[in-house]
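Ticket #4471: structure output looks truncated?

Reporter: J.K.
Steps to reproduce: submitted the chain below (220 residues) through the standard prediction queue, then opened the result file.
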Amino acid sequence: MSPLAALSLLSARSVRSFRSAGSALTALRARAGVLRARADDLDRRRRHRSTARALLRVEPEPESWLDVGTGDAQFPATAKELFPYTSFDGIDPTARVLAAREEERVEEAYVGDLTDPQLTRALRARYDVVTLLHPPTPDEDLRAALTLLRPGGLLLLETPRPRVDALRTELESQGCEIVPPKPRRLLDRPFLDGSFLNGPLSDRLRPTARIVARRAPSAP
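Returned output as attached by the reporter:
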């Protein structure tokens, strides 16, 4: 074989090897992306389940629940596992909530802003539970959420830890009672259901804090 032919053969083999390595790297990256998405989904479900469980200890069977800023209604979909007899609705500025209704993650879907006067009037005092899992900004969101609660209803919100004291003060000024979390043993359920990962230590390490507030009941 001439030197030129040998060089051509070597070059062809190098190209094939390079293409094969490139294909393997692409497949590896795709696999890593799938695994990362699954891990993110599992983490989200664990966080949502932990949040819903915080309400389960206070109100085991609310009749109606509104999730504010629900997006694709991933939180209601997870919360239904713990509250199978509760009617979940969702409100979101985008039309994603309509798709969530089509997929039966929520029963009623509202597109718009929480502070929209039309929505506030239509939904006033309708819900046993309202969730604000995104920081209420501005504070008008917080006050609007309270108007949607029935007397004695529960507001569940999550907020960056530096804002906790200010939000508690605001809620109390609106006549709400802050519901203290019930004490819980570190291992009160089998590890395999994720309870340990969602336990007290995990909650303390989260960058956000959870607040449960009860709207003042009607005067006798």
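Triage note (M.O.): checked the attachment and the full token line is present. Residues 185-202 have pLDDT under 50 and may be disordered.
Status: closed, working as intended.
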